[in-house]
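Run: sequence + adenosine-5'-triphosphate -> complex structure.
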Amino acid sequence: MIEMRGVTKLFQGEKAVDSISLTVHKGTIYGLLGSNGAGKTTLLKTLAGIYSPETGTVKVEGEPVFENPGMKQRIMFMPDSPYFFPQSSISQMAAFYRSIYPQWSQSRFKELGAVFPLDTKRKLSRFSKGMQRQASFWLALCCMPDVLIMDEPIDGLDPVMRRQIKNLLFQEVAERQLTVIISSHNLREIEDLCDHVGIMHAGKMLIEKDLDDLKADTHKVQVAFRDERHEAAISAKLQVLHQERRGSVNLYIVKGESERIAKVFEVYEPYVFDLLPLTLEEIFIYEMGDAGYDAQPIIL
Ligand SMILES: Nc1ncnc2c1ncn2[C@@H]1O[C@H](COP(=O)(O)OP(=O)(O)OP(=O)(O)O)[C@@H](O)[C@H]1O
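>> structure
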């Protein structure tokens, strides 16, 4: 289990991460979402023990991660741009990781050679961006970490390789209880992959929830009232994240349980009433809007 408690990380006096607490259970996949500059990379680097926070603690299975070499050997951090030694090949990087990570598996390295069609002797600097990304997954998985922290890892991978990597991650989680923390702007990927999600904005965690609960907690309602005066009454009774009118139909994005929402609307006997689930992308956009970060209707 990973436990972050009250973590604040400053850069030149500015809070990149502001009083964040989170828990990631062993053998689960946690998705970290957020606006640009929200603090996701800073949070991940603090979780990985690369940064020391100004306040708060980060512990994995009860042990601190910062300046703890024994714990670092069980954690793998994949940065948003893969890093390899200059002039090195996959074989050379594998030899390096083998010397650092005691759990390195040579048999896994051979097996995964069938998944990643990459020349292990060729210089990594000559690989394409997607091929470099594949190489870093290959190396990371062979280190057999207990915790895998990945900063926007899906970028640059083709759809077949994305599927392949998702399957490998699911397998590692199911078979050896790997714990994964992944940040991404690709909400479709997060929706497929994660058990739990956190949404960050301006250094704060806006929401942190089980993905199924999050989806069960926010709904889209399309409604047409017999009397337009009923529109205003809804906002007073429910937590409305967004409202817009499309002809005679009103669209509401509402937080709360579906049964409670339905009851509030039913009182007004609307002649159109549809209650629909939201995609993660819709939840993200409306939550961000609620936090004051909307897309502006500007056409230049
Ligand atoms: N090394 C650093 N020195 C100074 N400021 C930094 C440093 N790293 C990050 N910051 C600042 O901290 C804030 C959070 O940055 P961070 O990279 O964690 O955001 P992010 O959520 O990963 O963003 P993105 O989605 O754009 O990659 C930003 O304001 C950024 O300018």
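>> summary
The chain has eleven helices and 14 strands. The domain at 2-202 is CATH 3.40.50.300 (Rossmann fold).
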